[in-house]
Amino acid sequence: MTTVYNPNTCYKAISTPLLIISTEKIDIQLIDWNLRTAIDGNRARKFPAVTIRTFAVLFKIISGIEYFCDEYYYFGEDRNCQEAYCIVFPPPPNHQIVQNAYIVGHDHGVGKLGSICKKQKANCTIRMELPLITATSVKCNHESDIHKLSMDSGVRTAHPVLRVDNVFRVFFADNITGVAAVQQKLKFTGKGIKVGVIDNGIDFHHPAFGNCFATPGCRIITGFDFIGNGTPENPQPNPIPLETCDGHGTHVAGIIAADDPIKHFTGVAPEAQLGIYRISNCDAETSDDIIIAAMGRAQKDGMDIINLSIGHDFFSWPEDPLAVAASKLSDSGIAVSVAASNEGNEGIFTLGTPDSGANVITVGAVQNTKFFTFFLTANVAPKRKIIYETTRVTLWFGLSGPLPIKPTSTQPITPNDACTNVTEDFTGFIALIARGTCTFTQKLQNAEAAGAVGVLFYNNDDVQAFAISVVNDIPSAFISKKDGLFLLDEYNSNHNVIVSFPNKTIIVDAQIATQPLNESGFGPTFELDLKPDFLAPGGLIFSTFPENLGSYATLSGTSMAAAYMSGTIALFLQAKGKTDPKRIRDIFQTTAIPEEMRNLNQESLGMLHTVAKQGGGLINAFNAIQSEIIITPGKLPLNDTPHFNGTASFRIKNLSKNTKNFVLSHKPAASARGFFGGELVPLANTLFDPFYAKVVIQPSSISLKPGSTITIKLKITPPAQLDPQDFGLYSGYILIKNTDKSGKSGKSQNQVGKYHKRSTNKHTDGNHKHIDSYSNGNHKHNLDDEYNNHEDKNNHKSNHKSNHKSNHKGSRRSNHKNNHKNNQTDNDEDYEDNDNDHNNGTFSGLFEFGELDPNEEFTVPYLGLKGDLRAFPVLGLDPNTDSPFIVDNSNGNEFFNSSEVIPFNFLGNDFPTLVYTMILGSPLVRTLLVIANTNTIVGTVFQDTFVRRNDALNGDVSFFDWNGTVLMGNSSIPTPVPDGSYQFILEALHIFGNPNNQSDFITWRSPVLVVQNSASNQTSVVPSNQTSSNEKKVAVAIS
């Protein structure tokens, strides 16, 4: 019997929020302001206030730290706590920032800020110089010190240093991008081009990188480790950027430039030189000043290209320091390839920083065409190869067999299959279990308790088998619905089904080949810039991995797409020479191939993907390099309705020696509506419709002589079907088609002579865990940790109403922490072709292509928003979903209404926390303190500029703890307020709003805060997230 938790006795002895887990029923409750939130993996999920049942024992708190609740803890004199609960402390509030560390923009020059700190009597020390953005990062003893420093006339800004936890945005692709044609026909390999990889380091002992670092003849010519074994708070730089604990950087570098003489595996640009800059430790922790310092070092080292498969999600502002730094690199002549966010499943406006940088190349991801996978066989059909995935794509099951299987339910796709105790004896059997209702982990544990030696899960929909995340002590794998029902039928017929797991792989067709990954970031930026710029292969990408983790791995994400693009740019630069990065972006945008929306059967849905998802489309390296036409600009962001006058234009220049004739036409793309009921909705609930703009093109046919340029003028009318109140996105392409040709399709990248695909035989994956998400082009298939019910994951509209209280993690990487199975593949085993007949395909290594003319078709993407973005409710005010509220930390109570009264004495936990939700980003968010029930301003509680949106669908909120002080007038020192009754006025400026026009703010008035005995009780209070007043341009993060 589980002891009942008594918050009145337990909570008084505990000074921080708690996650409390029952040791008997594994029930969960959250106390304090985190009430009604449980942690699923490393993402916050919403649950009702009642106890949550049957949750996994292993939890990963927001910080990424794993806890196993196998001990009892108690506090004070309450023995019930000791007997009933495992208690885990989540990270403290404001864990997104490096405490009291700031990036200070100033005009004093490198090495000068230290003396200014002394002059201003600010107790701050220098963390690192950031000349790329004319700034210095500092660490101060107290928050008041940064206010002192900010009063210096040469100090422009002071942004807090942000922690960027889990930052990373994770070859058959070559024949869908023209890269194979460039390598084989044009013979370009990236030779002489330097690519800087800012990531988590590299295993340079890998043969694909020459087993060397920065020695004569080594392809890794330079690098640096900016964090070492330290943390963002206390980095420990090291001259050697070696990394063997995670693999992300090794995988990314391999996509760009691997050349393995043993396995004969090569990257996109196998003769490019690499600079490796390690900015993240083994816990995937870093900070923005560390990243900016690495950018500056790469620039100093003479890199031609910099790859940034990293970022901070939902900060979709080009003014963010990371975005500014990346854009400055581009302005200096370095091509910067940046991964779009991996938050596309959350719908529109899900990009971040630095991918929103104005001049960077922002890359989204498409699915590969084929991938390697293991298979099992059954005695009832020995020639049938049933593909499966374990906790990562291309990872062996771990048991060879032969072993008998037995279903936990003989009925097909039982909804709650194995969600309760399995009563039948499964000793010696592999359990066959249908997906649905409860977690993979729960099903596995119930089967294991019944004696099962392994588990085969089968899908409950038609999606291809994918990697799963499961906490397991016995092997487990996932197979398709078709294969699962086949095994179930055979068992029901003869009860004698024996399976074996060969240590071999086969090549399988990806179900949604060339379609944008659902998780690939969805534009536009908050200021309606057209992003991403285009797409590159990022799903199911096979590449190098640390040798101790298996040498090779298959990973997915925009990280892989950005790396693929970096390698492609290296080929381009070798072919074309030094080129303005913005020109490179224009060329690749206008030679890319817009992708059609297709279903799981690859049947067309009759619409192109919105430009907000795919930018220019899938890159075509051969066309980009061979193009004799330059189109500028390469994209047309049309802004919102009040800021668009209905016209646009671009220029076409003929670089060839021949006159070229073109006709121009309009290719519309699907409209996208993702704002309903006052909130942004996930991709699964986003509507895509054939609502098209009307476009008039002048002139619509042209004849261009050699060296001549013409301006094309457009008149664009937004779709009549879109309601301005929905803030719908409309988009499309201007097609420029060469009429001198014979009518062959020119925008096909699969047409170049006859040649052999480079070998990828005899490669294996390591023992590493990875979670993939799959897309069918217009519907969400979210495969997150623990929650495996497909139907539940695809309906978010009703399950994100009850909770607003969680911290944003800022993750851009796919989760591939260590998988503790010891099941490495035999490296000497050849990959086989799959001879199955159920959508697995074959691969011979030989392709037949016809004649290719890269100058036949070009496209220019455009994107606009119908409606006035100044009317978009950037701040949530709905009391049922996302209204701001005050938390009384002394008891966890929440207060929403301005008529409520809450006393605080600021002793211990007796202080208020303001919690609020940013539906969209805001250029300016501030909180003023006023005398209760008046508009008389006492001072500024905090002010922040270019604020991120919250991922409200996953419980992410903004918040700050108030310590009873404000900034008054021009004072730089926080001043305690006297006893009295006050209220917060929370204000968020609409995008494109005027900060001097009060009507451009959306505001909220708090409950009455009664300050009692404040002057003598300012100790033992959690530091606040205060910023300066309006008079100083100092921005400090809210959350």
From TrEMBL:
Keywords: Hydrolase, Protease, Serine protease, Signal. Residues 739-846 are annotated as: Disordered. Residues 796-820 have a biased composition (Basic residues). Residues 638-742 form the C5a peptidase/Subtilisin-like protease SBT2-like Fn3-like domain. One of its GO terms (biological process) is proteolysis. Residues 826-835 have a biased composition (Acidic residues). The active site is at residues 199, 248, 559. It comes from the Eukaryota. GO terms for cellular component: membrane. Residues 190-603 form the Peptidase S8/S53 domain. Belongs to the peptidase S8 family. Residues 413-485 form the PA domain. One of its GO terms (molecular function) is serine-type endopeptidase activity. Residues 762-772, 781-795 have a biased composition (Basic and acidic residues). The keyword Transmembrane does not apply. This is 20119_t:CDS:1.
